[in-house]
Amino acid sequence: MKALAARRHHPLAFVAILLLALVATGGLYAAFQPRSAQAESYTQDDVDKGEDLFLANCASCHGTNAQGMQDDSGNTLGPSLIGVGAAAVDFQVGTGRMPMQNSGAQAWRKPPQMNDEQTRQLAAYVASLGPGPSVPDEEALDSKDADLENGGNIFRVNCAMCHNAAGAGGALTRGKFAPSLSGVESKHIYEAMETGPQNMPVFNDDNISASDKRDVVAYLKALDEQGSPGGISLGSFGPVTEGLYAWTIVLSLLVGCAVWLGAKAK
Q: Does the keyword Cell wall biogenesis/degradation belong to this entry (predicted)?
């Protein structure tokens, strides 16, 4: 017993206990981290080709090891991509936001620079760097049994304050904005919820379950299909544009009437 007590007071005992605690914490995190359904597995050839694409197109901002980079002033050139997962790459590259065309407050959606195969290879490389959200499979996106009412409720509670109740998008601060969701592919909507690109919060399965994400995607696609049954949408920006149009038309009519009456009086 005395020998055991002596070992407990050894100078390195605290270090050993700390290392064991860190290993246990990392193991529990890896075990309980939410994971989405992965659309496909990647080969080592995919990873190798993805690394070549990364070094040629992404490393100048994200670093040669995807660890992120800063300029001399401490401003972030590109964040670390370790642990962001394949879904983040598929969203950013698949929507043309990355590689960025030029520096700015926010990456704009544009025609993709890489084809589907290159995007998949790049996603394979980034996925190999650390665990993260994977590209959703067809089952996760199957809207056959989706609940549109539930999807609409979830969207209005969690998303409409930035994206607008009709998904038309809206302005944020400092030159940033929430983009329109019209015409966006189902998997990219799902991936955006999973990864939280740019100013968007992350909605993992602890926040919004996989089935609820599917309902949100189905609701937004239903909005695309239905269009504007009430007539001219006026951009779907709500009372601001409606009021502007009303005042413009009413004031134009009033001015026109005043000019006509004045001319008639002469």
A: no
Report the C-alpha gap between 217 and 148 in whole angstroms.
Answer: 9
Buried b (16+ CB within 10 A) or exposed e, 91-110: bbbbbbbbbeeeeeebbeee
pLDDT at 33: 52
pTM higher than 0.90: no
For the stretch 141-154, pLDDT in tens is: 998 899 999 999 99
Burial 189-223 (b: 16+ CB within 10 A, else e): bbbbbbbbbbeeeebbbeebebebbbbbbbbbbeb
pLDDT tier at 4, thresholds 50, 70, 90: very low
**How many angstroms separate the CA atoms of 83 and 196, rounded?**
13
